[in-house]
Amino acid sequence: MDVRRLDLLRELAERGSVTAVAEATGRTPSAVSQQLKVLEREAGMPLTERSGRGLVLTSAGEALARSAADVAVALERASALWDEFRNDPSGRVTLLTFPTMGAAVLPGALTDLQAVPDLEVEATDLDPELAEFADLTSDYDIVLAHTMPGVLPWGGRGLTAVPLLTEPLDIGLPADHRLAGRAYVTPADLVDETWLGVPPGYPFERILHAIEQQAGRRATVSQRFSDMRIMEAFIEAGFGIAFVPRYTSSRVPSSIVLKPIRGVESSRLIVALMRPDVAERLAVRTVVDALVTRAARLAETRATA
Q1: Residue 11, number of CB atoms within 10 A of its CB
Q2: What tens digit of pLDDT does each residue of 164-214 get?
Q3: pLDDT in tens, 118-166
Q4: CATH number of residue 138's parent domain
């Protein structure tokens, strides 16, 4: 079977439609459909079937798509071994980061990577909901993702996840707040405060629900923001309290204090998420190594600050 056609079948399994595969691979939908028909003839059995106006994989198609991923991993591993032999981690690596991690770690990592000849990193930012991080690995080589401990929305997807940080989430308070002098705060201290929340579906929302459950009553959320800079500005202005990442937040103004919370788990796991074949590429591994180094340096610096 042709490896390129196998890869189209894998793309269909991950993206869900011929149109999406065509857009991602620079083909027309008819060209994708034609190549899939050729692959079916090579396989000797139906790999797709009609469902409404689109195509879905048959059980044979699903099995072959999984095999296609194994083939892609093997090919990239062989290529990476040759790159290592030549000591040549060159190439283009696309990276997607969420904003706070991008600001805190990415500039330093890219500075370190400037010493690697012909390695090009193309980065952009987005802060999606938890369930969307895994889907984005189809479009980016590396996706910097975050989630709550024990919650792995990309589990079962066969992706490679390299841990970068386990980051505490503190409570950000105005400096003149009644709790500002405490060594730590508890759910009972916090539940009756006015909160600045995140959009529904974002990870931090789960911790607020845990606080409500521990305290036995609902909290009041006055505003919701996904941008931490806006959140910090509203805390500073006295509009409420909020979760603030200890390591990756921007430089917190002196008019804001951070307090650890006891009684609920309040941290997040940050990982570099990749397709398993992409994770074999020497250029990609070189970028991930730089991210790991810079993330460890950040945690050490902020922990002693």
Answers
A1: 20
A2: 999 999 999 999 999 999 999 999 999 999 999 998 878 788 899 999 999
A3: 999 999 999 877 778 888 998 999 999 998 888 888 888 889 999 999 9
A4: 3.40.190.10
Choosing from 40, 73, 106, the residue where a domain stops is 73
Q: Any idea which residue has 């071994």 for tokens?
A: 81
User: CA-CA distance, 300 to 170, in Å (whole number)?
Assistant: 17
Give the C-alpha separation, 165 to 184, whole Å.
22
Q: Which residue has the tokens 């970068």?
A: 164
Q: What digits encode the pLDDT tens for the residues 63-85? A: 888 888 888 888 888 777 777 76
Residue 134 has which token pair?
Answer: 């895994």
Rounded distance between C-alpha atoms, residue 255 and residue 173, angstroms: 9
Q: Verify that 196 and 277 share a domain, yes or no.
A: no
Asked if residue 80 belongs to a domain, the reply is no
What is the three-state SS of the chain?
CCHHHHHHHHHHHHHCCHHHHHHHHCCCHHHHHHHHHHHHHHHCCCCEEEECCEEEECHHHHHHHHHHHHHHHHHHHHHHHHHHHHCCCCEEEEEEECHHHHHHCHHHHHHHHCCCCCEEEEEEECCCCHHHHHHHCCCCCEEEEEECCCCCCCCCCCCEEEEEEEEEEEEEEECCCCCCCCCCECHHHHCCCEEEECCCCCCHHHHHHHHHHHHCCCCEEEEECCCHHHHHHHHHCCCCEEEEECCCCCCCCCCEEEECECCCCCEEEEEEEECCCHHHCHHHHHHHHHHHHHHHHHHHHHHHC
